[in-house]
Amino acid sequence: QCATSSSQTFDYIVIGSGAGGIPVADRLSEAGNSVLLVEKGPPSTGAFNGTMKPSWLQGTNLTRFDVPGLFNQIWADPTGVACEDTGVMGGCVLGGGTAVNSALYWKPHPQDWDYNFPTGWKSSDMANATAKVFSRIPGNYITSMDGKYYQQQGFDRVTKGLDAAGFKYVIPNDHPDQKNLTYGHPTFYVEHGERHGPLRTYLVSAAARPKFTLWTNTIAKRVVRKGGHVTGVELECNQGSGHSGTVSVTAGTGRVIVSAGTFGSAKVLLRSGIGPTDLLNVVKSSPIDGSTMISSDQWINLPVGNNLNDHVGTDIQINHPDIVTYDFYGAYNNPIESDKQAYLKSRSGMLTQVAPNLGPIIWQQINGSDGVVRHIQWQARIEGRTKTAMTITQYLGLGTKSRGRMDITPQLNTRVATAPYLRDQYDKEAVVQGIEYMRGVLSKVQSLTWIVPTSSQTTTAFVNSVPTNPSSRGSNHWIGTCMIGSDDGRSGGKAVVDLDTKVYGTDNLFVVDASIFPGITTGNPSAAIMIMAEKAAERILALKPPTSS
Ligand SMILES: Cc1cc2nc3c(=O)[nH]c(=O)nc-3n(C[C@H](O)[C@H](O)[C@H](O)COP(=O)(O)OP(=O)(O)OC[C@H]3O[C@@H](n4cnc5c(N)ncnc54)[C@H](O)[C@@H]3O)c2cc1C
């Protein structure tokens, strides 16, 4: 039964409970404000009353989201978990991406801030926020409670080749700046053999405060605004326990924070009449919103949807007779009995390892002939065309210049209109150089054979053969559609939000999630997003209350 929203008002309404939304909601609530966190999806992890689980987890407080060995179930059965309105994979459940992702967790390289972000957001500015996140979520590179690693044949064989080529083993989060010719074990937010992260920390402290309210199964349709001043949020009940109606912020001083993800936040802004004219016209002519959309004389013209980016993923695949594949998908319904018992009784064994048995993670930098240093992260997993295969994905990240664009359909689904992959020739050069180098390194590993690329294929021919679309290159690390910057997008700049994460042309509307990142990070971005959210909370709390206009 859906509830109609009450007459209660909130100092802050945060839309979306992902890597950005949970930390910012917690910090705003910690400062004594009344906070409503609105999440479109259902509960996920057991601690917040999630229910999605295989039969062998019945009777425990665990769901599929808690057990690391089941994390790849999102690919086998995304129903009711993955976002249905984005065209690419995303988690639309409590926790957003942090409930469904592989939990890889990297302290950012200083350049992730210094190269990408504007004044006030450089690595020295982010030190305190980084310390805050890592004190709550330390991360872990041994997930089994008995302190052991399981089925590491792939890791061992590949790292022999890396050692011989002079790569250095590091504990990655002890040395975030050592990201060239280094490798390490994957580091995860897994604690006590279960998914950890913001759902187990920030959301727990927020939920314990009387002035904090969480509504799941509730979609924020758009913000209600008069000119640049937002008075509330229009809600739609998604299912079951959700809420509908309009919920208001505290008159005069209340604020709305949009943290609905790179596609979701852009969509909320577009439905609220904030964005480029061509996309606002699509909303205006849509059968769903058209007749009730804010009138065009109130539109705020900003480049929402531009600057879309993601890691460029390119998979290589090797074969080694020693590699052993584990059936993590099979473990969903029929886990090996001893592995199930080891997990349930002592949180040890294979099922504490994130599927499909990740690692090593390898870093490399390419000095581009355009003078830009581009960062590559290689991420290995035991999966491929044979039972003894390992796929190693090359992520080209920091330094990429290619950008794409997101748009919206009349059905109000967002989609990748222009994919951001390899549109810049030097980005492509870096991908080719990186793969060429890694082929040389791995070819020296005894008994290793190549599946992709084949040994007769040139690296350039191989790279050209992989389509530059999200299904072939996508890494699920979308950023950029509501970019932060001092160059106001209303007057020809690229930025949608200012240095306080406030939407230009408004006085109490903010965006705090991956969408504000100007460029992609070196590694998987969720730690950087949480750090950004800590920083945003500091800056928002330091602002004077809006003067109602
Ligand atoms: C399969 C997968 C694997 C990944 N693996 C990793 C990894 O190992 N490590 C890593 O660092 N990153 C990983 N990522 C990326 C990472 O999870 C995301 O970058 C991160 O979660 C983005 O944070 P966010 O706050 O911007 O958005 P999200 O975490 O996506 O959160 C947005 C939330 O807003 C909600 N929402 C959307 N629209 C509305 C609305 N209108 N009203 C109410 N709620 C709404 C969504 O349901 C969602 O819960 C992975 C992502 C995926 C999909």
From TrEMBL:
Residues reported to bind FAD: V93
Keywords, comma-separated and alphabetical: FAD, Flavoprotein, Oxidoreductase, Signal
Gene3D superfamilies named in the record: Cholesterol Oxidase, domain 2, FAD/NAD(P)-binding domain
Domain Glucose-methanol-choline oxidoreductase N-terminal intervals: 91-114
Protein name, as recorded: Cellobiose dehydrogenase
Entries under InterPro entries matching the protein: FAD-dep_OxRdtase_2_FAD-bd, FAD/NAD-bd_sf, GMC_Oxidoreductase_CD, GMC_OxRdtase, GMC_OxRdtase_N, GMC_OxRtase_C
MF terms (GO), sorted A to Z: flavin adenine dinucleotide binding; oxidoreductase activity, acting on CH-OH group of donors
The family this protein is said to belong to: Belongs to the GMC oxidoreductase family.
Keyword Oxidoreductase among record annotations: yes
Pfam family, one: GMC_oxred_C
Domain of life: Eukaryota
Native source species: Polyplosphaeria fusca
Stretches assigned to coiled coil: none
Listed cofactors: FAD
